[in-house]
């Protein structure tokens, strides 16, 4: 069951949306990713608070809380208006907890899902986003943030290794710290018959202190869609690489939605580098039904052996 309510208090707006999924999961007989002792763990809910004019100068404050079956996320975002020709600023505080199944999970159901093995990521970050004014089809975002990553088991206790003894952090302690400078550029062009999209991301770990992570991570996504009569063909290529310090959870996980479909997250492999190709053809069957034929493939480019715990992830 679900409920949604909007409450207006002056200029503030509170949106509440709560979904109860316990009966739905039971009826579908979905095997859980991990054991859950409390029925409350099977409740999905979200809470959103928005203020459009916090200090009387069109400053925007957004507070949101989301809870899934096995994860949660708290986000606070403050936006201050600036002239259109200047970069728009957004100050962000975020905390999330989620199971790490892409690297430390285990494949189940003939590799179609990835199950939890008791490794969870608790991330706390504070940062600033700068959205540059868009020019033609190009736009860019620059951000800098401090991030604290804490590894926990299902009981909420700190861990330094997974159940097989492989490390879960780069520092060797239960947590990693880093300051990350990120630059993302996007190109979008679309018309009635086709569209093109290109995204490039570069992340640089800044060595503020000696034990903080220093790395350079690059990722790109190129997508092209073409209308073929009543059908639509979509193809994309995703790739990336990371050099320098790397914790296992930073590796590129191959498999899952948005990667190689039909496999669980990370069930195909993981590595310091990756290359994933996706293609699909969507066509109408009748007025109410569409069909899809897709082909996905992915590779770690031989870099899987460079990820800590490589021996375990060779299925």
Sequence-ordered SSE layout with sheet pairings:
Elements: E1 2-9, E2 12-20, H1 22-28, E3 43-51, E4 60-67, E5 72-80, E6 88-99, E7 106-108, E8 113-115, E9 120-131, E10 138-152, E11 175-190, E12 194-206, E13 215-228, E14 231-244, E15 252-254, E16 269-271, E17 273-284, E18 290-299, H2 310-313
| Shape by Cα distribution | globular
Overall mean pLDDT score? 85
Alpha-carbon distance between the termini?
39 Å
Number of strands: 18
- CATH topology of the largest domain: the name is Porin
CATH superfamily of the largest domain: membrane protein fhac: a member of the omp85/tpsb transporter family
Quickly count the helices: 2
Which CATH-level-2 architecture of the largest domain? Beta Barrel
Domain count, please report it.
2
Task: Estimate percent helicity.
Answer: under 10%
CATH class categorisation of the largest domain:
Mainly Beta
InterPro entries: Bac_surfAg_D15, D15-like
Main location: plastid
Keywords: Membrane, Plastid, Plastid outer membrane
Organism: Hevea brasiliensis
Question: What does this molecule look like?
Answer:
By secondary structure, the chain is mainly β. It folds into 2 domains: 1-30 and 43-99; 134-314, Beta Barrel (Porin), CATH 2.40.160. Helices cover 3% and strands 55% of the residues. The chain has 2 helices and 18 strands. The strands form 3 sheets. It has a 14-stranded antiparallel sheet. The two termini are 39 Å apart.
Which tags fit this structure?
Porin, plastid outer membrane, 14-stranded antiparallel sheet, Bacterial surface antigen (D15) domain-containing protein, 2 domains, D15-like, 315 residues, mainly beta, two-stranded antiparallel sheet, 55% strand
């Amino acid at each position: 069951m679900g409920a949604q309510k909007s409450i207006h208090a002056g200029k503030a707006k509170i949106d509440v949306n709560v979904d109860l999924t316990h009966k739905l999961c039971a009826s579908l007989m979905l095997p859980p990713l991990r054991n859950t002792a409390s029925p409350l763990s099977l409740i999905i809910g979200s809470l959103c608070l928005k203020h459009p004019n916090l200090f009387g100068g069109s400053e925007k404050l957004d507070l949101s809380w989301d809870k899934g079956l096995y994860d949660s996320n708290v986000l606070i975002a403050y936006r201050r208006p600036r002239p259109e020709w200047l970069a728009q600023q957004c100050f962000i505080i975020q905390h999330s907890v989620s199971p790490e199944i892409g690297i430390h999970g285990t494949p189940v159901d003939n590799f179609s899902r990835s199950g939890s093995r008791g490794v969870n990521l608790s991330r706390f970050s504070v940062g600033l986003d700068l959205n540059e004014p868009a020019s033609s089809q190009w736009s860019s975002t620059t951000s800098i943030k401090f991030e604290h990553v804490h590894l926990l088991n299902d009981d909420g206790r700190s861990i330094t290794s997974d159940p097989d003894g492989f490390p879960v952090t780069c520092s060797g302690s239960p947590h990693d710290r880093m300051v990350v400078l990120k630059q993302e550029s996007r190109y979008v062009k679309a018309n009635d018959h086709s569209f093109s999209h290109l995204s490039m991301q570069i992340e640089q770990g800044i060595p503020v202190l000696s034990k903080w992570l220093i790395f350079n991570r690059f990722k790109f996504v190129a997508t092209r869609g073409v209308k073929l009569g009543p059908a639509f063909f979509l193809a994309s290529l995703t790739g990336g690489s990371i050099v320098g310090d790397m914790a296992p959870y930073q590796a590129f996980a191959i498999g899952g939605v948005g990667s190689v479909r039909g496999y669980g997250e990370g069930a195909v492999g993981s590595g310091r580098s990756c290359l994933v190709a996706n293609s699909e053809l969507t066509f109408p069957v009748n007025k109410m039904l569409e069909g899809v034929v897709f082909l996905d493939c992915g590779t770690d480019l031989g870099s899987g052996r460079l990820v800590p715990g490589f021996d375990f992830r060779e299925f």
